[in-house]
Design a protein that fits this description.
Shape of chain B: elongated
Largest interface: A-B, 17 and 22 residues
Radius of gyration of chain B: 37 Å
Number of helices of chain A: 11
Oligomer: heterodimer
Number of domains of chain B: 4
CATH class of the largest domain in chain B: Alpha Beta
Number of domains of chain A: 1
CATH topology of the largest domain in chain B: Spore Coat Polysaccharide Biosynthesis Protein SpsA, Chain A
Structural class of chain B: alpha/beta
Structural class of chain A: mainly alpha
């Protein structure tokens, strides 16, 4: 019952699409550059990082730049997904209490916002790829599959964290704190090789693998098998958790928020 | 060690502070020097003034001496007199100029004294802005904004914003010539005449004209530039704009007379007055023009005015009983639902005002009793209303207005001083009308919608999309009729509070306020804000009652609750259960019955769609028949396109979210169509409608075509010969049958399909069948016999117009609200 209602909400595309777009409009309302601020802020951050860290690490600039641009773009999506997931039901409090809308609508609305952001960041990535005239092959197209997996994972994260944070408000702060740390524990600004033997530690960080399935095909032209295995396993486990949450926990959400 | 460190640090800081202080004092010194310089200028001008006075004296003496002499002497005297006048004028001007300079200077020195650091910072910012504007290839709109910001900053810092060095002037002229990269289409026979009164501000005027040239509109328009003898030497640039009708007054007439004088050149049926300190947004002209087309009896229409920083300046004006004005919504969010529906207002600002030419000629233009400027727009709005026409605010048309650019905002000086003078004159002229207005600033919410008979809250599950399903058409026209009757309808899409794009805009264009997120995300938010203002609350469908009936009874104590059943859900569900024979369906139907009867009991009035349902409710369930009102389908007046010839095929129309339609299609395909097809081998069956299940596409064959969703049903039906409606259950009146009959396409259907239709003229249009054989027989008769078809078709259109055209249904609503 709860499951069906949830997926009906996901299926109501015109509704969440309109809500997500209205959100974006509200965020960038009255600004001159509007939604392109996403691209600009991304560009600024990446530019400075490449300038400073590139100089320190004495790496091949082309390789390092692409590494940072794509890594940070994916990280942006993951970070926004995880952090916003905590707030997905709490933020829609008045809707959940006031209307009969499906929870799926709010999840889809939140993810759609991140996809829109990702789109504007991806513009920069594509320009970067062509700018550095990086050689691309058929392997590169597995990136698209990687993105699909990111979105599928983002969904279960929203369901699980959304419900968890609604019940236990500390989790939200915990997640935020952890995500700050994870930024440095994930190979975004540095390349694992630079860590030497310690690089193996990175493999225990799941975010490394989420980054790898999108970044490796573009930067190194390979399909990272270990990463894919890890991602698929986490996806399956995550979705079990999500279905459990949907089935047994979501009916309480209205009381928690 | 540490003390030494701190000492070092301290001395370092001291040094840097000292250097900062010296820099600031240097700056100050400069300013003081400048002040001295200016004081010198002041004293110089004073001496000049004195010499002028002496000259004056001498001239006077001369005049005296020459008086009473010959004709030549008189001539000299007159000449001198004129010279005298001129020098007097010049003297007073110099005096004023000096006084102004003096006060500004004190202000500036004061500013430097008080905030030296800020002043220095602002200098840098200004330099940065100057560089940005000059060197970056920014769009013109942005450059304009930067210029405006610079002007304000420069004034604060004591620069003369109008001062230009020689090279800068050259650069400016060059730029202006390059700027004119647009033109107007010189129409011989324009429908709209846009009049832009201009006094200086040439750059701004060019920017304004450019935005006008970018408007897309289906009718021709002309732009008349009414130059009120601008002293600015660059006015000649305006003459170079191709297609622009440029008129320059020989002398300065003031805003009011300038408009009146130049409106004589207008050739269109409509006149638009647009201030030159505006930039119009896309759709500005078209939506303004459409206001006259879509609404009855409009005399004046006006736009939404927005400040350059994006805040709302005015969404139609309010006039209080003491004749003072109020900009409704000033400094609020222009996207708020409250400011986004068409509404009658007290006045429309002259910054962007459209009036019909006939009315303008009849009135004779802006009232010349008023002086120069201000209140002329208010006065003309009052006059138009007194002639029985409407003054309407159109939010879809929006204009960025840089208020006060041309005349400042100080009421005691400049052109703005006429505001106070004209207010008195206005109050005298309209004393009687003003008595009907509300006292100053007490209830702006009520004053903003003074003319509405009352407020109606209309709650439905989702925003109606009339092109998608028949229920939407009814909801749409119900609200249209309610607003036609003079009420203000506030629509809530209760299941999602979403802004539904064009569908929401359509309602707003009709004068209905739509409630949506992020401004309102729950019914509580709305009802707490203004629950007590509603006279009626209409709840459409049982779902709305389920969610909101209790809240509304609590929070809108003075409102009458009207429950619009749309169709009685329990009736439909019972029939469905009879067919499916499932116990759970029956239980659900029973439950729904209890709920619906409860909602009916708790409402003051109930709307049902057919006489059949009314009788059922009053006879079987003991609902008082005075409480129940039958309001059938509501449709536009219809007209038949084309006759028997050129039409072919038989169609099934329906929205497939409604389960009876899905069942009907199955029966049609599996049992009825094979029999019909045998009798009519040439005819094809077409299945269309929204939200079609995927399995339908499997039905396609040589004689069955799956058309899917049809955006323009009217057009579609004009090529169809017959429709078929083999419905086995479902309650209420069937939209598809009504649409088909209204379009002059006869319909063959079951008894259920024709259930609930009005009795008047029903026998001419009801082709009833219950078995596949009967369907085949009737279809074949109508399909092949031109005379029979023609008769059925014509009586169908008549039936539709008599019973369902919304002009006729309006009377039923009037009865409901009595």
């Amino acid at each position: 019952m709860e499951l069906r209602a949830f997926f009906q909400g996901i299926g109501d595309v015109p509704l969440w699409w309109r809500l997500a777009w209205a959100d974006m409009n509200q965020i960038y309302r009255r600004s001159l550059i509007g939604i392109f601020w996403i691209s600009i802020s991304f560009l600024m951050f990446v530019g400075v990082k490449i300038f400073i860290f590139g100089a320190i690490s004495q790496m091949d600039m082309t390789y390092y730049s692409l590494w940072v641009v794509i890594g940070y773009a994916v990280w942006n999506f993951i970070n926004a997904s995880v952090v916003d997931a905590c707030n997905v039901f709490i933020g829609s409090r008045s809707w959940i209490l006031g209307t009969n809308m499906s929870l799926g609508t709010f999840v889809a609305q939140s993810i759609m916002r991140h996809i829109i952001s990702l789109f504007f960041v991806a513009i920069i990535c594509i320009v970067a790829v062509f700018f550095y005239s990086w050689e691309q092959s058929l392997v590169t197209f597995t990136v698209l599959l990687g993105l699909v997996f990111l979105i599928i994972n983002s969904m279960w994260v929203h369901i699980v964290l959304g419900a968890l944070c609604a019940r236990h408000r500390d989790v939200m702060h915990l997640v935020q704190a952890v995500m700050h740390v994870m930024f440095f524990l994930t190979p975004i600004l540095y390349i694992p090789k630079q860590l030497g033997p310690k690089a193996a530690v990175l493999n225990y960080n799941p975010f490394t693998h989420y980054l790898a399935i999108v970044r490796e095909p573009v930067v190194n032209g390979i399909i990272p098998q270990l990463s894919w295995t890890v991602v698929i396993c986490i996806t399956i486990v995550g979705w079990f958790a999500a279905i459990y949450t949907l089935k047994y926990k979501t009916r309480n959400i209205a009381f928690w928020i | 060690m540490s003390t030494k460190m701190t000492k070092d640090q301290l001395s370092k800081e001291l040094r840097s502070a000292k250097s900062k202080a010296t820099r600031a004092s240097n700056k100050l010194l400069k300013v003081v020097q400048e002040k001295e310089k200016l004081q010198k200028v002041v004293s110089e001008k004073e001496t000049k003034l004195k010499t002028m006075g002496a000259q004056l004296h001498a001239t006077r003496k001369k005049v005296k001496a020459s008086s009473g002499d010959s004709a030549q002497a008189r001539k000299i005297r007159e000449n001198n007199e004129r010279k005298l006048q001129a020098s007097r004028k010049r003297a007073s001007m110099v005096e004023k100029d000096l006084a102004l300079k003096n006060t500004r200077l004190t202000q500036i020195v004061d500013y430097y004294y008080r905030h030296p650091m800020q002043a220095i910072f602002k200098h840098w910012m200004l330099a940065l802005l100057v560089a940005t504007r000059r060197w970056l290839p920014l769009p013109e709109r942005w450059k304009l904004r930067i210029s405006r910001r610079m002007t304000a900053m420069a004034l604060r810092l004591g620069y003369n914003p109008n001062y230009k060095s020689g090279s800068e002037v050259l650069h400016f002229v060059q730029n202006m010539n390059d700027d004119i990269d647009f033109e107007f289409f010189a129409s011989e026979d324009p429908v709209i005449s846009i009049i832009v009164p201009v006094y200086n501000e040439i750059t701004q005027t060019v920017a304004c004209l450019r935005t006008i040239s970018q408007q897309f509109i289906g009718v021709d328009y002309e732009v008349i530039l009414a130059d009120d003898a601008s002293p600015d030497p660059f006015y000649t640039i305006l003459q170079k704009i191709p297609g622009l009708k440029y008129h320059r007054n020989p002398e300065n007439l003031g805003f009011l007379n300038n408009c009146n004088e130049n409106a004589k050149h207008a050739r269109g049926d409509y006149i638009v007055f647009l201030n030159n300190d505006t930039l119009v947004n896309s759709g500005w002209l078209e939506t303004l023009y459409n206001t006259f087309i879509d609404h009855d009896n409009v005399g004046i229409a006006g736009s939404k005015l927005v400040f350059p920083d994006g805040r709302l300046q005015e969404a139609g004006g309010i006039i209080w009983e003491d004749a003072s004005g109020w900009n409704w919504g000033r400094e609020q969010n222009p996207d708020h639902p409250r400011y986004n529906f068409v509404r009658d207002v007290d006045y429309i600002s002259g910054a962007s005002l459209m009036i019909t030419k006939d009315l303008w000629d009849e009135i004779g233009g802006f009232n010349t009793e008023l002086v120069k400027a201000y209140y002329e727009d208010t006065d003309i709005c009052f006059k138009v209303r007194s002639m029985g026409k409407r003054v309407v605010y159109q939010p879809a048309s929006s204009v960025i207005h840089i208020e006060g650019l041309s005349s400042g905002t100080d009421v005691t000086s400049g052109a703005k001083k006429y505001q106070a003078v004209n207010k008195e004159i206005f109050q005298r002229i309209w004393a009687d009308d003003l008595k009907k207005h509300l006292p100053n600033a007490q209830t702006p919410e009520i004053a903003s919608d003074r003319t509405a008979k009352g407020h109606i809250l209309y709650i439905d599950a989702v925003t109606p999309e009339p092109d998608k399903d028949s229920g939407s058409v009814d909801a749409f026209y119900s609200m249209k009729i309610l607003s036609m009757l003079g009420y203000r309808v506030h629509f809530v899409p209760g299941s999602n509070f979403a802004h539904w794009g064009e569908a929401t805009h359509d309602l707003e264009r009709m004068g209905i306020e739509c409630i949506y997120a992020p401004f309102y995300t729950s019914m509580n938010a709305l009802l707490e804000e203004r629950g007590d203002t509603f006279k009626y609350v209409v709840l459409a469908r049982a779902e709305s009652c389920e969610h909101y009936l209790a809240t509304i009874r609590k929070k809108c104590p003075s409102a009458q609750i009207i429950y619009n059943t749309v169709d009685l859900h329990f009736l439909r569900m019972t029939r469905e259960a009879e067919l499916s024979k499932k116990a759970e369906d029956k239980k659900a139907a029973e439950k729904m019955k209890v709920h619906e009867l409860d909602y009916i009991a708790k409402s003051k009035k109930v709307i049902v769609i057919s006489q059949h349902e009314r009788e059922l409710l009053s006879k079987e369930y003991g609902v008082s028949s005075r409480k129940i009102h039958t309001i059938p389908l509501i449709r536009d007046e219809s007209e038949r396109i084309g006759g028997y010839e050129g039409r072919q095929d038989i169609a099934f129309i329906g929205g497939y979210r409604h389960p009876p339609n899905v069942v009907a299609v199955k029966w049609l395909i599996e049992e009825i169509w094979p029999v019909v097809s045998k009798k009519l081998p040439d005819a094809k069956l077409r299945i269309c409608g929204s939200h079609m299940p995927k399995e339908f596409y499997g039905y396609a064959s040589e004689s069955v075509i799956i058309d899917g969703f049809i955006p323009d049903l009217e057009q579609y039906l004009s090529g169809i010969k017959l429709t078929i409606a083999p419905l086995t259950y479902g309650a209420g009146l069937k939209g598809k049958v009504a649409s088909s009959i209204g379009a002059g396409v006869p319909c063959v259907g079951t008894d259920i399909a024709f259930e609930g239709m009005a009795d008047k003229g029903l026998k001419n249009i009801k082709f009833e069948a219950s078995t596949p054989k009967e369907f085949a027989k009737l279809c074949a008769e109508l399909y092949s016999d031109a005379n029979k078809w023609e008769k059925a078709s014509v009586s169908g259109v008549d039936y539709h117009n008599d019973n369902y055209a919304y002009h006729n249904v309006a009377a039923l609503f009037e009865k409901l609200l009595k």
